[in-house]
Protein backbone atom coordinates (compact mmCIF):
# COMPACT_ATOMS: atom_id res chain seq x y z
CA UNK A 1 0.00 0.00 0.00
CA UNK A 2 1.33 3.41 -0.99
CA UNK A 3 1.93 5.79 1.88
CA UNK A 4 1.30 9.48 1.41
CA UNK A 5 4.24 11.47 2.74
CA UNK A 6 4.89 13.10 5.09
CA UNK A 7 3.22 10.77 7.60
CA UNK A 8 1.26 12.75 10.17
CA UNK A 9 1.69 11.43 13.73
CA UNK A 10 1.26 14.67 15.66
CA UNK A 11 -2.44 14.46 16.46
CA UNK A 12 -2.06 15.91 19.95
CA UNK A 13 -1.09 19.22 18.34
CA UNK A 14 -3.95 19.25 15.89
CA UNK A 15 -5.93 16.83 13.75
CA UNK A 16 -6.92 16.70 10.10
CA UNK A 17 -10.39 18.15 9.60
CA UNK A 18 -12.69 15.33 8.55
CA UNK A 19 -13.75 15.97 4.91
CA UNK A 20 -17.40 15.65 6.02
CA UNK A 21 -16.77 18.47 8.51
CA UNK A 22 -15.37 20.72 5.78
CA UNK A 23 -18.33 19.89 3.56
CA UNK A 24 -20.80 20.79 6.32
CA UNK A 25 -19.04 24.14 6.84
CA UNK A 26 -18.86 25.29 3.20
CA UNK A 27 -22.39 26.71 2.76
CA UNK A 28 -21.84 28.92 5.83
CA UNK A 29 -18.97 30.67 4.03
CA UNK A 30 -21.03 31.23 0.89
CA UNK A 31 -24.80 31.61 0.71
CA UNK A 32 -25.55 31.13 4.44
CA UNK A 33 -23.36 33.94 5.74
CA UNK A 34 -25.84 35.52 8.15
CA UNK A 35 -25.02 36.73 11.65
CA UNK A 36 -26.55 34.31 14.15
CA UNK A 37 -27.54 37.30 16.31
CA UNK A 38 -29.59 38.95 13.52
CA UNK A 39 -33.15 38.40 14.69
CA UNK A 40 -34.94 40.31 11.94
CA UNK A 41 -34.37 38.32 8.79
CA UNK A 42 -33.94 34.94 7.21
CA UNK A 43 -30.12 35.12 6.99
CA UNK A 44 -29.90 35.45 10.76
CA UNK A 45 -32.46 32.73 11.42
CA UNK A 46 -30.62 30.24 9.20
CA UNK A 47 -27.33 30.96 10.97
CA UNK A 48 -28.93 30.76 14.39
CA UNK A 49 -30.59 27.42 13.60
CA UNK A 50 -27.22 26.04 12.48
CA UNK A 51 -25.55 27.22 15.68
CA UNK A 52 -28.30 25.68 17.83
CA UNK A 53 -28.00 22.33 16.04
CA UNK A 54 -24.23 22.43 16.63
CA UNK A 55 -24.82 23.29 20.29
CA UNK A 56 -26.91 20.10 20.65
CA UNK A 57 -24.26 17.98 18.91
CA UNK A 58 -21.44 19.45 21.00
CA UNK A 59 -23.40 19.11 24.26
CA UNK A 60 -24.22 15.50 23.51
CA UNK A 61 -20.63 14.30 23.28
CA UNK A 62 -20.07 15.20 26.96
CA UNK A 63 -23.57 14.37 28.23
CA UNK A 64 -24.51 18.04 28.77
CA UNK A 65 -27.61 19.98 27.78
CA UNK A 66 -27.30 22.57 24.97
CA UNK A 67 -27.91 25.52 27.31
CA UNK A 68 -24.81 24.54 29.27
CA UNK A 69 -22.49 25.14 26.28
CA UNK A 70 -20.68 28.43 25.66
CA UNK A 71 -18.90 28.68 22.29
CA UNK A 72 -15.41 30.22 22.38
CA UNK A 73 -12.41 30.57 20.07
CA UNK A 74 -10.79 27.36 21.35
CA UNK A 75 -9.69 25.53 24.45
CA UNK A 76 -7.25 28.26 25.48
CA UNK A 77 -10.06 30.78 25.68
CA UNK A 78 -12.38 28.29 27.42
CA UNK A 79 -9.68 27.59 30.02
CA UNK A 80 -9.13 31.30 30.61
CA UNK A 81 -12.86 31.92 30.93
CA UNK A 82 -13.25 29.02 33.36
CA UNK A 83 -10.26 29.84 35.57
CA UNK A 84 -10.18 33.65 35.49
CA UNK A 85 -13.99 33.83 35.35
CA UNK A 86 -14.59 31.59 38.37
CA UNK A 87 -11.80 33.32 40.30
CA UNK A 88 -13.48 36.66 39.63
CA UNK A 89 -17.00 35.51 40.48
CA UNK A 90 -16.04 33.62 43.66
CA UNK A 91 -13.14 35.69 45.02
CA UNK A 92 -15.40 36.95 47.81
CA UNK A 93 -15.76 33.31 48.97
CA UNK A 94 -12.11 32.34 48.90
CA UNK A 95 -8.84 32.78 47.08
CA UNK A 96 -7.32 29.32 46.84
CA UNK A 97 -7.03 27.20 43.68
CA UNK A 98 -5.77 23.66 43.18
CA UNK A 99 -4.22 22.31 39.99
CA UNK A 100 -1.52 19.82 38.95
CA UNK A 101 2.04 20.35 37.75
CA UNK A 102 1.37 18.50 34.47
CA UNK A 103 -1.34 20.82 33.16
CA UNK A 104 -1.19 22.55 29.79
CA UNK A 105 0.28 26.05 29.63
CA UNK A 106 -3.21 27.43 28.94
CA UNK A 107 -4.08 26.38 32.51
CA UNK A 108 -0.75 27.08 34.20
CA UNK A 109 -0.45 30.62 32.83
CA UNK A 110 -3.87 31.95 33.97
CA UNK A 111 -3.31 30.25 37.32
CA UNK A 112 0.05 31.99 37.67
CA UNK A 113 -1.59 35.28 36.72
CA UNK A 114 -4.06 34.81 39.58
CA UNK A 115 -1.18 34.18 41.95
CA UNK A 116 -0.05 37.72 41.20
CA UNK A 117 -3.57 38.90 41.93
CA UNK A 118 -3.85 37.71 45.53
CA UNK A 119 -4.73 34.03 45.03
CA UNK A 120 -2.92 31.10 46.62
CA UNK A 121 -2.26 28.10 44.38
CA UNK A 122 -1.56 24.45 45.20
CA UNK A 123 0.12 22.59 42.34
CA UNK A 124 -0.22 18.89 43.06
CA UNK A 125 2.72 16.68 42.06
CA UNK A 126 2.16 13.47 40.09
CA UNK A 127 3.55 9.95 40.37
CA UNK A 128 5.72 8.32 37.69
CA UNK A 129 2.61 7.53 35.63
CA UNK A 130 1.34 11.11 35.72
CA UNK A 131 -1.45 10.63 38.27
CA UNK A 132 -2.13 12.93 41.24
CA UNK A 133 -2.58 11.40 44.71
CA UNK A 134 -6.25 11.67 45.70
CA UNK A 135 -5.37 11.91 49.41
CA UNK A 136 -3.12 14.86 48.66
CA UNK A 137 -6.03 16.44 46.80
CA UNK A 138 -8.34 15.88 49.81
CA UNK A 139 -5.77 17.41 52.14
CA UNK A 140 -5.18 20.40 49.90
CA UNK A 141 -8.84 21.45 49.91
CA UNK A 142 -9.52 24.07 52.55
CA UNK A 143 -12.18 26.61 53.44
CA UNK A 144 -10.67 29.10 51.03
CA UNK A 145 -10.62 26.71 48.05
CA UNK A 146 -12.98 27.73 45.24
CA UNK A 147 -11.77 25.70 42.24
CA UNK A 148 -9.95 22.48 41.42
CA UNK A 149 -8.70 22.24 37.83
CA UNK A 150 -7.25 18.91 36.68
CA UNK A 151 -6.93 17.80 33.06
CA UNK A 152 -8.88 14.76 31.82
CA UNK A 153 -6.05 13.37 29.69
CA UNK A 154 -2.50 14.61 29.31
CA UNK A 155 -1.44 15.97 25.92
CA UNK A 156 2.12 14.63 26.18
CA UNK A 157 1.96 11.26 27.93
CA UNK A 158 -1.74 10.42 27.46
CA UNK A 159 -2.45 9.59 31.11
CA UNK A 160 -6.18 9.68 31.91
CA UNK A 161 -7.22 11.12 35.30
CA UNK A 162 -9.83 9.42 37.54
CA UNK A 163 -12.36 12.17 36.83
CA UNK A 164 -15.27 10.70 38.74
CA UNK A 165 -13.23 10.27 41.93
CA UNK A 166 -11.87 13.80 41.69
CA UNK A 167 -15.38 15.09 40.97
CA UNK A 168 -16.81 13.32 43.99
CA UNK A 169 -14.12 14.71 46.28
CA UNK A 170 -14.79 18.24 45.03
CA UNK A 171 -18.58 17.92 45.15
CA UNK A 172 -18.35 16.54 48.69
CA UNK A 173 -16.43 19.62 49.79
CA UNK A 174 -18.51 22.16 47.87
CA UNK A 175 -15.61 23.08 45.58
CA UNK A 176 -16.05 23.54 41.83
CA UNK A 177 -14.30 21.03 39.56
CA UNK A 178 -13.07 22.14 36.15
CA UNK A 179 -11.34 19.83 33.69
CA UNK A 180 -9.31 20.52 30.55
CA UNK A 181 -10.76 17.76 28.38
CA UNK A 182 -9.18 18.94 25.12
CA UNK A 183 -7.39 15.64 24.53
CA UNK A 184 -10.12 13.46 26.01
CA UNK A 185 -13.28 14.49 24.16
CA UNK A 186 -13.87 12.09 21.24
CA UNK A 187 -11.13 9.74 22.48
CA UNK A 188 -12.73 8.41 25.67
CA UNK A 189 -16.40 8.36 26.70
CA UNK A 190 -17.08 11.40 28.89
CA UNK A 191 -20.16 12.28 30.87
CA UNK A 192 -20.23 15.49 32.89
CA UNK A 193 -22.97 14.19 35.25
CA UNK A 194 -21.23 10.89 35.95
CA UNK A 195 -17.90 12.69 36.40
CA UNK A 196 -19.45 15.30 38.75
CA UNK A 197 -17.86 17.92 36.51
CA UNK A 198 -18.86 21.57 36.95
CA UNK A 199 -16.87 23.10 34.11
CA UNK A 200 -15.20 21.44 31.10
CA UNK A 201 -13.10 22.97 28.31
CA UNK A 202 -12.49 21.50 24.86
CA UNK A 203 -11.58 22.36 21.30
CA UNK A 204 -12.78 21.39 17.81
CA UNK A 205 -9.38 21.12 16.11
CA UNK A 206 -8.27 18.28 18.40
CA UNK A 207 -11.21 16.15 17.22
CA UNK A 208 -11.09 16.56 13.43
CA UNK A 209 -12.97 19.85 13.48
CA UNK A 210 -11.75 23.31 12.44
CA UNK A 211 -9.32 25.54 14.33
CA UNK A 212 -10.46 28.64 16.19
CA UNK A 213 -13.54 27.21 17.89
CA UNK A 214 -14.02 25.58 21.25
CA UNK A 215 -16.53 25.28 24.04
CA UNK A 216 -16.86 25.69 27.76
CA UNK A 217 -19.43 23.59 29.57
CA UNK A 218 -20.81 25.27 32.70
CA UNK A 219 -23.15 23.15 34.78
CA UNK A 220 -26.74 24.38 35.11
CA UNK A 221 -28.46 24.03 38.48
CA UNK A 222 -29.26 25.96 41.64
CA UNK A 223 -27.16 28.02 41.63
CA UNK A 224 -25.74 27.57 38.11
CA UNK A 225 -21.99 27.66 37.56
CA UNK A 226 -21.37 31.17 36.26
CA UNK A 227 -17.86 32.46 35.50
CA UNK A 228 -17.55 36.22 35.06
CA UNK A 229 -17.31 37.11 31.37
CA UNK A 230 -13.79 37.89 30.20
CA UNK A 231 -14.87 39.37 26.85
CA UNK A 232 -17.52 42.06 27.00
CA UNK A 233 -19.68 43.65 24.33
CA UNK A 234 -23.06 42.65 22.96
CA UNK A 235 -23.95 39.92 25.41
CA UNK A 236 -23.68 36.95 23.03
CA UNK A 237 -23.64 33.44 24.51
CA UNK A 238 -25.96 34.55 27.34
CA UNK A 239 -23.48 37.25 28.29
CA UNK A 240 -20.65 34.80 29.03
CA UNK A 241 -18.74 35.48 25.81
CA UNK A 242 -19.51 38.42 23.58
CA UNK A 243 -18.59 38.67 19.92
CA UNK A 244 -20.21 37.58 16.66
CA UNK A 245 -20.27 33.81 16.52
CA UNK A 246 -17.96 32.03 14.07
CA UNK A 247 -20.86 30.20 12.44
CA UNK A 248 -18.94 28.06 9.89
CA UNK A 249 -16.51 26.88 12.57
CA UNK A 250 -19.30 26.17 15.03
CA UNK A 251 -21.14 24.14 12.37
CA UNK A 252 -17.92 22.18 11.77
CA UNK A 253 -17.46 21.62 15.50
CA UNK A 254 -21.00 20.22 15.71
CA UNK A 255 -20.40 17.90 12.76
CA UNK A 256 -17.08 16.74 14.25
CA UNK A 257 -18.87 15.92 17.52
CA UNK A 258 -21.63 14.03 15.71
CA UNK A 259 -19.08 11.96 13.77
CA UNK A 260 -17.00 11.30 16.88
CA UNK A 261 -20.02 9.98 18.76
CA UNK A 262 -20.88 7.65 15.88
CA UNK A 263 -17.33 6.44 15.23
CA UNK A 264 -15.48 6.58 18.56
CA UNK A 265 -15.81 2.93 19.61
CA UNK A 266 -14.69 1.58 16.28
CA UNK A 267 -11.81 4.01 15.79
CA UNK A 268 -10.56 3.56 19.37
CA UNK A 269 -9.85 -0.14 18.98
CA UNK A 270 -8.25 0.30 15.58
CA UNK A 271 -6.07 3.20 16.75
CA UNK A 272 -5.05 1.35 19.92
CA UNK A 273 -3.90 -1.68 17.94
CA UNK A 274 -1.87 0.48 15.54
CA UNK A 275 -0.31 2.27 18.50
CA UNK A 276 0.50 -1.04 20.20
CA UNK A 277 2.13 -2.34 17.04
CA UNK A 278 4.21 0.83 16.74
CA UNK A 279 5.49 0.46 20.30
CA UNK A 280 6.00 -3.29 20.01
CA UNK A 281 7.99 -3.13 16.78
CA UNK A 282 10.10 -0.18 17.88
CA UNK A 283 10.96 -2.15 20.99
CA UNK A 284 12.02 -5.16 18.91
CA UNK A 285 14.69 -3.07 17.20
CA UNK A 286 15.54 -0.60 19.96
CA UNK A 287 15.35 -2.64 23.13
CA UNK A 288 16.27 0.16 25.55
CA UNK A 289 13.35 2.44 24.82
CA UNK A 290 10.96 3.55 27.55
CA UNK A 291 7.24 4.22 27.13
CA UNK A 292 6.01 7.09 29.34
CA UNK A 293 2.61 7.48 30.96
CA UNK A 294 0.24 5.04 32.58
CA UNK A 295 0.31 1.41 31.35
CA UNK A 296 -3.49 1.11 31.18
CA UNK A 297 -5.12 4.46 32.02
CA UNK A 298 -3.99 6.09 28.83
CA UNK A 299 -5.25 7.50 25.55
CA UNK A 300 -5.41 4.93 22.75
CA UNK A 301 -3.74 7.25 20.27
CA UNK A 302 -0.73 8.26 22.37
CA UNK A 303 2.79 6.92 22.65
CA UNK A 304 5.40 9.01 24.43
CA UNK A 305 8.68 7.19 23.97
CA UNK A 306 12.13 7.91 25.38
CA UNK A 307 15.09 6.76 23.27
CA UNK A 308 18.04 7.14 25.63
CA UNK A 309 21.15 8.71 24.08
CA UNK A 310 19.28 9.97 21.03
CA UNK A 311 18.37 13.66 21.24
CA UNK A 312 14.81 14.02 20.00
CA UNK A 313 15.59 17.19 18.03
CA UNK A 314 18.28 15.34 16.09
CA UNK A 315 16.05 12.31 15.49
CA UNK A 316 13.31 14.57 14.13
CA UNK A 317 15.82 16.33 11.83
CA UNK A 318 16.81 12.91 10.54
CA UNK A 319 13.26 12.02 9.41
CA UNK A 320 11.62 15.03 7.81
CA UNK A 321 8.91 12.86 6.26
CA UNK A 322 7.49 11.89 9.68
CA UNK A 323 5.55 14.54 11.59
CA UNK A 324 6.08 13.91 15.30
CA UNK A 325 7.03 16.28 18.08
CA UNK A 326 9.10 16.48 21.20
CA UNK A 327 6.15 17.67 23.25
CA UNK A 328 3.48 20.30 23.39
CA UNK A 329 3.48 22.52 20.31
CA UNK A 330 2.78 25.52 22.48
CA UNK A 331 5.99 25.18 24.47
CA UNK A 332 8.15 24.06 21.53
CA UNK A 333 9.36 27.67 21.27
CA UNK A 334 11.09 27.33 24.62
CA UNK A 335 14.23 25.17 24.74
CA UNK A 336 13.47 23.79 28.26
CA UNK A 337 12.65 20.07 28.19
CA UNK A 338 9.01 19.22 28.87
CA UNK A 339 7.68 20.07 32.36
CA UNK A 340 5.42 17.03 32.12
CA UNK A 341 8.24 14.57 31.50
CA UNK A 342 10.29 16.09 34.30
CA UNK A 343 7.26 15.91 36.62
CA UNK A 344 7.02 12.12 36.10
CA UNK A 345 10.68 11.81 37.02
CA UNK A 346 12.62 11.85 33.76
CA UNK A 347 16.03 13.50 33.79
CA UNK A 348 16.48 16.51 31.52
CA UNK A 349 18.52 14.32 29.21
CA UNK A 350 15.84 11.65 28.94
CA UNK A 351 13.12 14.28 28.57
CA UNK A 352 15.11 15.77 25.68
CA UNK A 353 15.34 12.29 24.13
CA UNK A 354 11.59 11.71 24.03
CA UNK A 355 9.29 11.65 21.02
CA UNK A 356 5.54 12.06 21.21
CA UNK A 357 3.50 10.04 18.71
CA UNK A 358 -0.16 10.94 18.28
CA UNK A 359 -2.30 8.75 16.04
CA UNK A 360 -5.81 9.37 14.72
CA UNK A 361 -8.65 7.62 12.95
CA UNK A 362 -6.95 8.61 9.69
CA UNK A 363 -3.68 6.85 10.54
CA UNK A 364 -3.15 3.81 8.30
CA UNK A 365 -1.23 0.56 8.66
CA UNK A 366 1.08 1.84 5.94
CA UNK A 367 1.78 5.02 7.93
CA UNK A 368 2.79 2.95 10.95
CA UNK A 369 4.97 0.53 8.96
CA UNK A 370 6.75 3.43 7.32
CA UNK A 371 7.20 5.29 10.61
CA UNK A 372 8.66 2.25 12.37
CA UNK A 373 11.40 1.88 9.77
CA UNK A 374 12.21 5.59 9.72
CA UNK A 375 12.31 5.98 13.51
CA UNK A 376 14.54 2.94 14.00
CA UNK A 377 17.01 4.08 11.34
CA UNK A 378 17.00 7.67 12.61
CA UNK A 379 17.55 6.78 16.26
CA UNK A 380 20.39 4.45 15.26
CA UNK A 381 21.97 7.10 13.04
CA UNK A 382 21.84 9.75 15.78
CA UNK A 383 23.33 7.35 18.31
CA UNK A 384 26.11 6.31 15.91
CA UNK A 385 27.00 9.97 15.32
CA UNK A 386 27.12 10.86 19.00
CA UNK A 387 29.23 7.73 19.70
CA UNK A 388 31.66 8.79 16.97
CA UNK A 389 32.01 12.22 18.59
CA UNK A 390 32.47 10.77 22.06
C1 LIG B 1 -4.38 21.83 22.44
C2 LIG B 1 -4.64 21.91 23.89
C3 LIG B 1 -5.07 23.12 24.47
C4 LIG B 1 -5.22 24.39 23.68
O1 LIG B 1 -6.29 24.29 22.78
P1 LIG B 1 -6.54 25.39 21.65
O2 LIG B 1 -7.90 25.08 21.14
O3 LIG B 1 -5.48 25.16 20.62
O4 LIG B 1 -6.47 26.73 22.27
C5 LIG B 1 -5.32 23.10 25.81
N1 LIG B 1 -5.17 21.99 26.57
C6 LIG B 1 -4.77 20.83 26.04
C7 LIG B 1 -4.64 19.63 26.92
C8 LIG B 1 -4.50 20.75 24.70
O5 LIG B 1 -4.09 19.59 24.18
Based on the model shown, name its key terms.
single chain, 390 residues, Aspartate Aminotransferase, domain 1, 11 helices, 39% helix, globular, binds pyridoxal-5'-phosphate
Fold and architecture overview:
The chain has 390 residues and is an alpha/beta fold. It folds into two domains: 135 residues, Aspartate Aminotransferase, domain 1, CATH 3.90.1150; 240 residues, Type I PLP-dependent aspartate aminotransferase-like (Major domain) (Aspartate Aminotransferase, domain 2, 3-Layer(aba) Sandwich). Helices cover 39% and strands 13% of the residues. The structure holds pyridoxal-5'-phosphate (PLP). Pyridoxal-5'-phosphate binds next to helix 3.
Entry summary:
The protein is of the alpha/beta class and 390 residues long. It contains eleven helices and twelve strands. The chain has two domains: 7-15 and 264-389, Aspartate Aminotransferase, domain 1; 19-258, Type I PLP-dependent aspartate aminotransferase-like (Major domain) (Aspartate Aminotransferase, domain 2).
User: Structural class of the secondary structure composition?
Assistant: alpha/beta
Mean pLDDT equals 96
Ends apart, CA distance between termini: 41 Å
Q: What would the principal axes of the Cα set say about the shape?
A: globular
Ligands bound, unique: pyridoxal-5'-phosphate
Instruction: Give unreliable regions as ranges.
Output: none
Amino acid sequence: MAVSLPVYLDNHSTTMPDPRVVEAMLPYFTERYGNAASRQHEFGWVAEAAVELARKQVARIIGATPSEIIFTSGATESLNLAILGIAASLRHRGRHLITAVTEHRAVLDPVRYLEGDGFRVTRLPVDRFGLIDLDELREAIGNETILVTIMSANNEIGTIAPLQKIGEICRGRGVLFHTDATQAVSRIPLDVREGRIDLLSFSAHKMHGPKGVGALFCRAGQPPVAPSAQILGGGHERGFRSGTLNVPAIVGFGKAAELAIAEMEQSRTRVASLRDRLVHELREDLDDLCVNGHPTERLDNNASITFPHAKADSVIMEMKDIAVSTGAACSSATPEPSHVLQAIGLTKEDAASTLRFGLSKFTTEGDIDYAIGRVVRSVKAVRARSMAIA
